[in-house]
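REQUEST FORM: STRUCTURE PREDICTION
Request ID: SP-0412
Submitted by: Lab K.M.
Chain count: 1
Length (residues): 260
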Amino acid sequence: MTLRATVAAAVLAATALLGLVPQAVAAPVPQPQDATAETRAAAAQAAAAPETLATVSRFFAREGKVSLTAAQPRIQGEAVPVHYLSPDFVAGKAGAPVARLEFLASEAVSSDGQRAALWTARTDAGWQVVNIATGDDEFRYAQLGAAKLPGGTVFREPQIDAWYVAEGGRVLPLDEDAERAVGAGGTTLDGYRVRVAAAYGDKLPGSSYARRGVAGGFEDGPSGASGAPVALGAGAAAGALALGALGVLGVRRFRRAAGA
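STATUS: Completed
RESULT:
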């Protein structure tokens, strides 16, 4: 079994830079209820703010790939909604959608081509960037899902870092992790519910599993609404990494390689 570090290493903006409590210790923030034109505009404004771009410059320069002054990050495209598997769906609650909106993501691009997703949520201080993750997963899978099932909901099952698109009673895989879970041809919505209920039904909020804080199920966390569960990736490293003098904290995530 092998693991490979992904280009989705999550790095959190520090309090001194964006006025945020680092995500690893932050109080829960409210989830956006819907990706309206208003929320998209607010997320885009937060992502393009001068203080945000200054932090993103430090992020891109953290490994010496580009200098701090040469990074010159820009925001590309519109903010996209990012959905995660819903614990209500796993629990079998009547009418629960397969996924719930977790945050909005804006794509930042460095002068040397590095890419990062700026995760934006509504906090007590208004819309703010609460996390920076390298790579373009959020945007790439949104495009793949739209092409595969137009009008469908693209969502992530973070426990296995799998991406899907769901529409009209069908759930189709968008990456290798999802294919291993539901097959290349996908499954029905009911079939997917059976699978996730078997995998996570005993790991929902309030369960003994959740109280032990074991990664891989659902647990209260910083990116959900107050008191709401957040899905945790099975391969996520729990510790925070100090990134030199940049004043940012990072949580590095891993994805299972093919055949892992």
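NOTES: DSSP finds eight helices and 15 strands in the chain.
Reviewed by: T.R.
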